[in-house]
Amino acid sequence: LPATTFGREGHAASRHRLSHVTRLYLLMGLPAAAGLALVAEPTMRLLTRPEYLDGWRILPWVAGGSFFLGLQEFFSQALTLVHRTRLVMLSMLTAATANGLLNWWALPRYGPVAAGVTTLAAYLLLCLLVASAARRHFHWSFPAASAARSLAAVLVMSAAVAGVLEITTGLSAALRLLVAVPTGVLVYCVS
To answer: What is the mean pLDDT of each successive set of 10 residues along the chain, which is 191 residues long?
Structure first.
């Protein structure tokens, strides 16, 4: 989307569009990742067989990593607009190498959950590297105020969903999700 705008309308319009779509991503992606992390256990209980239930412990880490992977895309687009794709590639190689080395070290020591943690760490590193490079080559307004508001609303949402999950502990996974998910959406929207 920003690339199309860049080609038709130039730098200023691209900066505005990139800020706008990043803001939308933050407002939707942050609560989605947090929400998935919060309801990981009942979700896995509902969707998998009992032998895979422990996978719920990995899901929050992967959800967080997925959020940062999505966020880095906006910084990568900024670099693509100014023909600095080599910096994107180097950032990806660095993060992938870090992920491989962290997995090599952590998996034997800490088990499968370590793979989720290292995924989050690698995608966060990728996001930071690409963001740092983008800031030097394409100046646009990152929607920090929207990020802060979304984070504050996510914290309120998290407390509400955690409370609902605690209260509904004895119910089936499906019922817990039927109560927790709408509660999270409602509380996030009004926060």
So the answer is: 62 84 97 98 96 95 98 93 95 98 97 96 98 91 95 98 97 98 98 93
Copy the structure tokens of residue 82: 């100014």
Half-sphere exposure of 140 (CA within 13 A, CB side): 32
Residue 178: other Cβ atoms inside 10 A? 14
CB 30 within 8 A of CB 86: no
- The answer to whether 68 and 124 have CB atoms below 8 angstroms apart is yes
- Quickly tell me which residue has 């499906």 as its tokens: 174
Closest CA to 177 of 39, 32, 52: 39
Element at 58 (helix H, strand E): none
CA 173 and chain centroid, separation = 24
CB within 8 Å of 191: residues ≥ 6 apart: 152, 153, 156, 157
Tell me which residue of 174, 63, 59, 72 sits closest to 113, measured CA to CA. 59
Other Cβ atoms closer than 10 A to 175: 13
Are 110 and 51 spatial neighbours (Cβ–Cβ below 8 Å)? no
What is the token pair recorded at 172?
């089936």
Q: Which of 68, 59, 62, 67 is nearest to 125 (CA)?
A: 68
Task: State the DSSP string of 85-122.
Answer: HHHHHHHHHHHHHHHHHHHHHHHHHH-THHHHHHHHHH
